[in-house]
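Example (one chain per record):
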Amino acid sequence: MKQLILAYERVSSDEQGKKGFSISEQQNDIETYAMKRGDIIDRHYVDKGYSGTTMNRKNVKKMLKQVADGNVKKIYIKFANRLSRDDTMVRSLRKVFYKYKVEIVSINEDWAAEDDNADKKLSCDLVSRVDRAEPERAKIRTRAGLMMSAKLGNWCVPTVRLGFKKIPNPNSTVKDSQTIAPIDEWRPTVDKIVKMILDHQYPAQKIADILSGANEQNRVWSAKDVLMIATKPEYSGEFEQSYFKSVNHHEGFYSPETRQEMIKIIHGRRRVKKYVYLFKGIVFCQECGGLLTCIPTVKKRKGKNNVMTKTPVYYYFCKECNKRINESKLLEGVLFSYEKRLLMNPDVSEDRKRLIKKIIKIEDSIENLEEEYFDDLIDEIYYKKQRTNLLRKRKQSEKALKEMQCEVNDWKNLSRVEQRKIVKRCLKKVMIDFKKETPSKIATVELKE
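Predicted structure:
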């Protein structure tokens, strides 16, 4: 079997590529160096975008698998840290390559084999430890550079928010440095958003609908866009990142105080709980046959100390007849004659007994299955498959039993969601006769089969 000569190249980021570590440069240097030694590279293994602090790399695993197959003679690398930056992992790789008699050729001569002298291995281990700390040092240097650039008023983020543009920074001595400034055409739009939040306290979605309807900036607006303009620090002239925060960094649309006030309004707004209509979609007018729509209204009443209180009232409204009925009155009419049929179905008790017997039978089957498995009468695969099926059936039966128990409870003790489920499951249609006044005659109910 032919002994292969391989090459391995790795780059973790685009910045390394700019510093002379690009894949193409590594491959060219390795090819040239191998030719001088009289070798021809049979295959290149490349990992792009992977850190050297981990071995969870796709192509290095493939290369090590080929090494374990015993048909690799040499591996060329440009630097030892291309294989790994972890000194512990370097020592493990050294033993692997020694076991399978693979020679590692480093152009930088910073790799020590297992059978090299102690001084060379020690020096290479020290280099590996320095390489291991290099990514963290690079992060610190990058953060320090960004912080210094931001202090000079430079925009250190690649993207620009809506309504801003990049311009040359007059306060910086660095060549080609840029900052951001508001686009004049966007000022009226931002002023509208600020006014609708501060003066009218409109929600973000309503503002987005208004802006889209007016075709502001020739775009379709979303609530996310409105919240971004109202809360992001760039719009108040601030620069805020994890490593640095600066006020009056650049020209903004409004002041930082205005931004804080808008944030307070947005986060302090109470969320309105959506009301659950019990008979939505099934209530019809007996006179015209039209579907009744759900409408809420507010009733003002005098409370203690003559203080006016607002109470929400929910109606079902017929547009054709221009008449409405209160939901509480409708519910009273429906339950007056049909409460027993709705909640106390005579078949429930029999069905409940049947489900209880079914659950007991499933539990006995699980117990018998476990005894057969522990007595080695069935294999593990069959045991796991049957046990999963039985547990699933038991869960379904217990859920059905719980729902049935819920139905026979007192109606007033149920939540709105549970009441809605029962109505949806039992009622097909409710016909309302607005000419009748008594609850027993105002509603005619058609039950589902």
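Caption: The first strand starts at residue 4 and ends at 11.
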